[in-house]
Amino acid sequence: MKKVWLLVLGGFFFTSLCFAQDYYALVEVLIKNDAGTAFMMNTVTKLPDQQACGKVLSPVNLLKTQYQVRTECVSGDKWEKLFQDTFANKPTGSIYISYRDPSGYETRVNSKVLAGANSSPVDSPIKETMLWANAIITALEKGGIKNARIIYPQKGK
């Protein structure tokens, strides 16, 4: 009888691992500089459950008094497919920063320059993008993160 219970418990454990999906904490911050340029900084953190997602997003909500911020916690096949290459540190269409945060969660950051505060992204010159990426890496290192790295875009994109 003990063997049957062990098999049943093992089956439940295995099934829960097979069907477990990650959650993603999405943060989008609209930042305008003194020169009138607007850009969107996007951060995605991969998390094991919805509770951890809420904990990651909670302090971000404090930024809402200074910036236009949107946050969301998402999960599902659509999101798994969308972020699959990014969390495998594969090149995508644009440059992004990859690192593991102090809690051990994988995080990715990118930035897009906007034509205006309420418009769509435009291609920013590579020199400006590299300055942004290096500034983010420096800020992360000052904050104690030593594993941040730049993931360069696919060639020809």
> What structural class should be given to the helix and strand makeup?
alpha+beta
User: Into which percentage range does the β-strand content fall?
Assistant: 25-35%
How many domains in all?
A: 1
Rg over CA atoms, rounded to whole Å, is 19 Å
- Total strands: the figure is 7
Q: Sheet with the most strands?
A: 7 strands, antiparallel
Order of helices and strands: HEEHEHEEEHE
| Portion in helices | 25-40%
**CA-based shape:** globular
Distance between the termini: 61 Å
Low-confidence spans: 1-19
Number of helices: 4
Write down the overall mean pLDDT: 81
Quick tags:
157 residues; seven-stranded antiparallel β-sheet; single chain; alpha+beta; globular; 30% strand; 4 helices
Give a description of the structure:
Helices cover 36% and strands 30% of the residues. The protein has 157 residues and is of the alpha+beta class. It has one domain (22-151). Strands 1, 2, 3, 4, 5, 6 and 7 form a seven-stranded antiparallel sheet that branches. Strand 1 and strand 2 (38-47) form a beta hairpin. It starts with a helix and ends in a 6-residue tail after the last strand. 13% of the residues are buried.
